[in-house]
Amino acid sequence: MAKLVELLLRYFPIRFVIRLTEFLSIKYLQLVDYLHTKCDPTPLALFRILFGFLMALDVFQERGLSDADIRFGDPNYCFFPLFEWIQPLPTQQACILYSIMWAGSIGIMLGLKFRLSCLLYLCPYVYFFLLDKSRWNNHSYLFGLFAMLLTWSGAGHHMSIDTLNLPAKNKLSGVPKWNYLILKFQISLLYFFAGVKKLFDSDWVNGYSMKNLSKHSLFSPLKMVTDAETIEFYMVHMGGLVYDLTVGFMLNFDFSKKAAYLLSLMFHGLNSQIFHIGMFPYVCLASLVLFCKPHEFPCSLFKSKLDQKSRNNSSDKLQRTQQHGSSIPRNSCSSRVTTGFLLFYILLQIVLPFSHSITQGYNTWTKGLYGYSWDMMINSWETLHQKITVRNYETGDERYLDPDVWVTNDRWSSHPDMARQYAGCISRNLARFNITNIEIYMDVWKSLNGRFQQRMYDPRVNILTAPWSPFEEVTWVLPLLRQFSHYRQDHFQRIAKEVSNWTESSDVIFVADFPGLYLENYLPKELGNVSITILSGQIMIEQDGDPNITLSTIRMSAGNEATTGDDGSNTSNGDVLISTKHGIRSAEFHKVHVVSFPNPSCYMYTYTNDTAEKLKRTKGSEYEGDGENSIISQIWNEIKGFTLEKYQEFATSIYLVANAHLNLFFDVPMVIRKSINSPD
Fold first, then answer.
1. Of 140-149, 243-252, 525-534, minimum mean pLDDT range
2. Region labeled Disordered — which residues (predicted)?
3. Which of 43, 188, 252, 546 would give a disulfide with 248, using CB separation of 3.0 to 4.6 Å?
């Protein structure tokens, strides 16, 4: 028996490994052969044309050419590079690099020196992408992937300038099947992972991520037959979830493909009007042609323009290829390597969206770098307050810095890596004004998906020297107060309706804070009838000229015994929480201290905006009786405003590119605009 076991251990594993290796090798060669089978290039060529055209428009807009002089021309402007060694170029060089990217997109569209055009577009694209994380989003990442995959593909083999001088028999030479499969995989993955992220996000499933979206005029017809809550929950949240989970599969089957086209047209059409997301909806619509067969519309229109002889030659060639296998031998080294890269790319795209447990330094209340995780529209942010305090650690003197002075967006306020980079940029900029030996503190108040406004970062931590690593949890990011999340369902909507009934300009702000911290707030004189009401816990209000006021929630039990509630928990056993409130004077500072140790507290501001109320009355009297004409006028004004904005972006971009070339080659001075927030 012992000898038998020894023989099995000695020979069976080796034979098993050998047979497994042989089996996998055969399957791998079959996969190589299948992936390199020739297909009609018409749908791929049509996608190439549409993608190149849309990217040419995108360069002026989201890629940032139209405001390149404002960002690259200001030496104090703060970029947020992924790697610190990536530095901004001088203005004229940046504009020339943008022009190269634009020329590359035109080359992609026309099929002119196709692979070179792809590289001319892709290389500057990657540079600008890595230079500034604050401009990242999912579709910017997607555009880069599409450009890379097209560079690798044979999309320039048909309907391109490169093929004009080729013999007729070669004009319809097929492209390997993997050209289609890898792009279809990327598109299907985009949708499916977006659906998975929504499915496992409680805020999306419960309808909190896209609140107030029904206020858009596009949903006005639906409001005639249903209410806003139904539109937001069933159409926006549930409809978006089902669409993302299913459309990728529907596009890959003939019986459901037409329905997927219709749903995609509606979905992306709405997105293009509701959200400011640039070319993303149009690129997604353009990608639908990849799922078309050559004889289907719209591909059939372009194929029919070729001469009959070329069509017949190509058809015979494709038939021979399908009968006898790929024209590329399956023992070809290049085909094997290509297949290996495809498998690696697929694995990488599956793993990356769920790598947040590794890159913990980028996590806050949400997980991971926003860009490659496909968590589209899951998180909506609202910022209440931002305060940057610059303190001299030798003298103790404090100064306050405008948070927007050297940036064009506030993405730094939601990501600790960017907050630390921003602190470093502020320090370098202030050193130019001889302000040194400083500490920087950030007090940022934000709301995630309709929750209470609360602090993002610990305001007691010097961000300039705060520890940060891409692979370690950030200790100075304060936790999301999820114990108060139930207020969104139980109280927020009811309270907001009650307050809105006071006047048209009455509003409410819900705030939560940690024990031992305080909110210092200034109320402008336009705000009237301001009061603070405690919802849970205990707070102390401090305002000049008044004694300190302490507010607590009082819990009345079933036996009418009153106790102070400071634990922030739900009531039970018939208990009722009685909130207390206190009026606040406008045009003055006040402080709200949380004293409910060791638990956090939550409270709310209610107020009336007197100036807004007067403006509404004035406008109401001006437009009273206009009715339908005012709506038509509003739509027309929006169209004119949009057209003028795009024209100005295009004109400014052309001017910057021309001025940059004149400056570089003829030393003509370059006129650079300056942000109104930037100090002299």
1. 525-534
2. 311-331
3. 188
Q: In this structure, are residues 199 and 192 in contact, taking their beta carbons and an 8 Å threshold?
A: no
Buried b / exposed e along 372-399 (16+ C-beta atoms within 10 A): bbbbbbbbbeeebbbbbbbbeeeeeeee
- Tokens, residue 139: 């579709």
**Residue 64 neighbours by CB distance under 10 Å:** 21
538: helix, strand or coil: strand
* Residues taking part in catalysis: 198
Q: With a threshold of 0.90, does the pTM exceed it? A: no
Strand-pair category, 538-543 with 38-39: unpaired
Cβ atoms of 320 and 327 within 8 Å: the answer is no
Residues in Cβ contact with 263 at an 8 Å cutoff, skipping those fewer than 6 apart: 243, 247, 250
CA dihedral of residues 389, 395, 396, 397 (deg, nearest 10): -50
Q: Where are the alpha helices (DSSP H) in 38-169?
A: 42-60, 68-72, 91-110, 114-131, 138-152
pLDDT digits (tens, 9 = 90+) for 300-326: 887 644 444 444 554 454 455 444 444
At 378, the pLDDT band (50, 70, 90 cuts) reads confident
The pLDDT, as a whole number, for residue 306 is 43
Q: Are 613 and 505 in contact (CB under 8 A)?
A: yes
Phi and psi angles of residue 493, each rounded to the nearest 5 degrees, phi first: -65, -40
Tell me the three state secondary structure of residue 529. Answer: strand
Question: What is the spatial distance between Cα 664 and Cα 666, in angstroms, rounded to a whole number?
Answer: 6
Amino acid at 11: Y
The structure tokens listed for 452 are 């209470």
